[in-house]
Protein 1
Amino acid sequence: MHRRRRSALLLTAAIAAAAPLLAACGNDAHPGAAAVVGDQRITVAQLENRVDEVREAQRAAVPDDTQYQQVVARTGTLTRDTLHGMVLDRVLHRAAEDAGVTVSRKEVQGMRGELEKQAGGPGQLETVWLQQYNVAPERLDDNLHVQLEAQKLAQSLGTDTSRPEFWQALSEASEKLDIDLNPRYGAWDVRKSSRVDARTPWVREIAQADAQQSA
């Protein structure tokens, strides 16, 4: 009896641990969604595609199998981090929109040109962004757009991106968007405008109860 219950618990724990990697359909309210931000869905397929882009870029940059596995190990939270970025981008865009802030393609290209000079060329800049921020080369312009949007939003608020006033604007935008994350990826903290891991105290409680009964 005890062996069967322990096996069931271990199986449940294994499923919970593997949940972020499974290509299941999401929660009941939003099948197939990794997150819903306002009236926009971020599907599991879209999230997986973004992660694949980064992995492919990492593989191209590190052809040695052993070194590549080390890179993968160092970026083990890539899926959740990527979803966090995808959601935060939308939050930032909403906050910028509310503040009347816009970013032009010319501004993005200007910023990219300056960064390429500092990095030593286009390829070097792509490498830096991939290694430091897990941004695939094809997403570099999108990421720079976000960086500029954040800077201009902070300027419009008379502050900078490290100050509470800036994050308060993002918090207000998060609340307006009513963000709903698939539980397998955690939850969205409106106050912090950040993804947080979901707490599952029931796993610990069941494990403790099982241990006590087996003693």
Protein 2
Amino acid sequence: MYDYFKGILADKKFPYCTLEVSGIGYRFLINLRTLQKLPDINSEIKIYSKLIHKEDSMLLCGFLNKQDRTIFDILTAVSGIGTKVAFALLDEFETDDLVNAVISGDDKLISRTKGVGAKMAQKIVLELKDKLTKLDITADLITSKNTNSIISDETINQTVTILQSLGYNKTEYQNPLEQAISVLDKDDSQELLKEVLKILSLF
């Protein structure tokens, strides 16, 4: 219903923050990692939103970037995972690290999250691994401009897989991916992903 709100940060008291937009205060439920990244009160910010509609209430969940919201949606699609557990996972892991853990099948790493036991972690991997990896990956999508022989096609493919799982399409990530490849000095998919996400956050 709402993609994002842009306005003035009026209040931030965990687990909520309030954004004033055109004289209206919108209250968002947020996780701890988001709270720690919020700017000072009276700063202008953009908050990506997710409307949760329950039988007896409605609430807005807030995120500082699209990829956190996308993973939140994917996590809460797993039966047994609600807002509380999804936020706990996003507090425990940076988004790209969580996706990497699921794709690599590391349920033991996931299970270290408070409120997520071994069985729930296994269920997350079982239900989401294929969903996050069965995407349209084309290694040659940027090779025409890839003059950095340090970065392998495998690293590019792994990075594109995660970018697509975070909701980015080729038009959005292609130029940032090319920029990231040009500046990295080692063949590391996690470093490449972090660099691309950093560039995307500037737009």
